[in-house]
Amino acid sequence: MWQQRMITLRARARGFHLVSDELVTALPELARCKVGLLHLWLQHTSASLTINENADGAVRRDFERFFNRLVPQGQDGYEHDYEGPDDLPAHFKSSLLGCQLSLPITSGRLALGTWQGIYLGEHRDQAGARRVLATLQGEFD
C-alpha cells in the first residue's frame, strides 16, 4: 500500500530543529504499518533534512556553528544574493545536507536508533513554514 501526504512544518528560527515528533504526529497511518519505508522530501532549496543526535540540544547548536563556519555569509564573489546575504549560503547548506530522507518502519514506528532524530536545518534568517512531501509505502494492518 502507498500513501502520500503534504506536511507543513511551522516556521522556525535559523538553526537545526528536531522535527521527528511533528512529522510522526502528522502521519497517524504510520502506526498501522507493520513494515515499510517513509520517504520525506523537503520542497525547499534553503533548508535541509538530516538525521542526528536527538537528546542533547548542544549538538544542534554545534551543527549551526559548524555550518556557518563552513559556509559563511557575506563572502565576496557570490552572485546570487537576490534575497539577501543568507540566500546563497542557505542553498549551499541545503545541497551539502540534502532535502530527502528514506526511513525504515518497523511495527508502526520509525526504526531510528536510540539517539537519532530527524533535523530540519533552517538556513535562512527569516524563513516561513516548510513543506515536506511524505510518501509511505509498506504492509499495513
Give the termini separation: 11 Å
In CATH, what is the homologous superfamily? YjbQ-like
The count of DSSP E runs of length 2 or more, i.e. the number of strands, is 8
Regions with little confidence, pLDDT below 50 for 5+ residues:
none
Strands of the widest sheet, in order across it, are: 1-8-3-5-6
The largest pleated sheet is described as: 5 strands, antiparallel
In DSSP terms, counting alpha (H) and pi (I) runs of 4 or more, how many helices?
3
Bin the strand percentage. Answer: 35-45%
* Mass-distribution shape: elongated
Structural class: alpha+beta
Kindly state the percentage of residues in helix.
Answer: 10-25%
Mean pLDDT: 96
Could you name the CATH topology?
Answer: Jelly Rolls
What number of domains?
1
Order of helices and strands: EEHEEHHEEEE
Family: Belongs to the UPF0047 family.
Pfam family, one: YjbQ
Protein name: YjbQ family protein
Organism: Aquipseudomonas ullengensis
What is the structure about, briefly put?
This is YjbQ family protein. Belongs to the UPF0047 family. This protein is an alpha+beta fold.
